[in-house]
Design goal:
Radius of gyration: 27 Å
Oligomer: single chain
Order of helices and strands: HHEHEHEHEEHEHEHEEEHEHHHH
Distance between the termini: 18 Å
Number of domains: 2
Largest sheet: 9 strands, mixed
Low-confidence stretches: 1-29, 319-346, 349-353, 371-387
Length: 387
């Protein structure tokens, strides 16, 4: 009886799951949290001659090369990355490259968000008036594109360097555009998140240089920042990276990749903070050696590991497709597959259930018949044998 009950219960579970009536299995919610990888479009062919210890598998490319952008998107999709957060501020070259990226993203059902570089090359803040004008351009020219990544129905943007601006300056930048798009800050601590809670839509912390093997407050800090962002109704974009080494551009800290251990640890800490978006640092920041783009030194190891972390099967790796628009709430939701696929799965599950119950009934009748024949031969009953 217990075996029969177990099988029937399992079949019912399969039935309701196929019909979409049960919640997804443990771990599925984590896999649905969208990943956006920070993407840099500042490369000329001459860029690869300075401050590099590793080089892309595609060679010394230009960010104007459409075939390179197309390949980047295909590789990223195959690893479960939903979109790029492209570094941008308005200018002839940057605008042209953003338009190229959006066009290729549309072709491959990929998504694009924008992180505005609010600091100059020397890490000094740009004029708030200049930034505000660029954000209005972003709102009016680019954010309507169907390839633009959305949360709660609004295009997602990030303002980098907010810690260098007063709250009033950030408000001057964000107030004209927040009605039609999201603007996240890039504060570095919970206090900063709370400071800008009224003038931004959350926080996207860019933390590429943490060493999870030595920083015992890494996970705690991410959780505290998430709580601060969510407390005011904002979004939280949690960072994770495969490693870091910016010594050739003036840095002193090195975070080894540790055979993938760094990526695993940082991913786990980011997920534990219950983010709305996971921010992968980075796709192609070769000067800081945080890249996951296939390269000469590291090959495809980071993307292979990311596929494992996302639980992608071999067939899914070639057909990963992000949703058209992220949902509201604390995590993004993918669009349902439609009525007919669900009905077909339901019909198949019904056949499975009916067949399973029929098999159980036949098995029980056959076993009863055997027991009856045995009892006639031995003069005992099933109850006596059990005792």
């Amino acid at each position: 009886m217990k075996a029969r009950l177990f099988v029937v219960t399992a079949l019912l579970a399969a039935l309701t799951t196929a019909a979409g009536l049960l919640p997804p299995p443990a771990g599925a919610a984590e896999a649905r949290t969208p990943i956006l990888a920070y993407y840099y479009q500042w490369f000329e062919r001459s860029s690869w001659q300075r401050a590099k210890t590793d080089y892309p598998r595609l060679g010394p490319y230009s960010s104007d090369d459409a075939s390179v952008v197309r390949t980047h998107i295909a590789w990223a999709r195959s690893a479960g990355i939903d979109g790029f957060v492209v570094s941008w501020k308005s200018g002839e070259v940057n605008n042209r490259r953003l338009e190229l990226l959006l066009a290729e993203a549309r072709r491959q059902d990929f998504k694009v968000a924008v992180i505005y570089q609010g600091l100059d090359f020397h890490r000094r803040p740009l004029s708030p008036a200049r930034i505000a004008a660029d954000f209005r351009l972003l709102r009016d020219r680019y954010a309507r594109d169907p390839a633009f990544f959305r949360l709660g129905g609004k295009p997602l943007t990030v303002l980098s360097g907010t810690w260098e601006f007063s709250t009033a300056e950030v408000a001057r930048i964000t107030a004209p555009v927040r009605g039609r798009m999201l603007v996240l800050g890039t504060e570095k601590n919970p206090e900063g998140c709370r400071r800008l809670a009224g003038v931004t839509d959350g926080d996207a912390y860019y933390w590429s240089s943490v060493n999870p093997a030595t920083n015992d407050r890494h996970e705690t800090k991410l959780r505290e920042m998430a709580e601060a962002a969510h407390a005011s109704g904002g979004y939280w974009m949690a960072p994770f990276a495969p490693g870091f080494d910016a010594r050739l551009v003036g840095g002193t800290k090195v975070v080894p990749r540790a055979g993938g251990g760094t990526l695993r640890a940082e991913y786990a800490a980011a997920v534990a903070s219950r983010p709305d978006v996971l921010g992968l640092i980075s796709w192609n920041e070769f000067s800081e050696n945080s890249h996951v783009e296939p390269s000469q030194a590291h090959g495809t190891r980071a993307l292979d590991q990311l596929r494992e972390l996302r639980g992608l099967s071999a067939s899914q790796r070639a057909s990963v497709a992000p949703s058209a628009s992220a949902g509201t709430g604390s995590s993004a939701r993918r669009e349902p597959p439609g009525v007919w696929p669900g009905l077909l799965r339901l019909a198949g599950a019904v056949v499975l259930l009916v067949g399973g119950v029929g098999w159980l009934s036949r098995t029980r009748r056959a076993r009863s018949a055997r027991e009856t024949r045995g009892a006639r031969r031995t003069g005992t009953t099933g109850k006596e044998r059990a005792t």
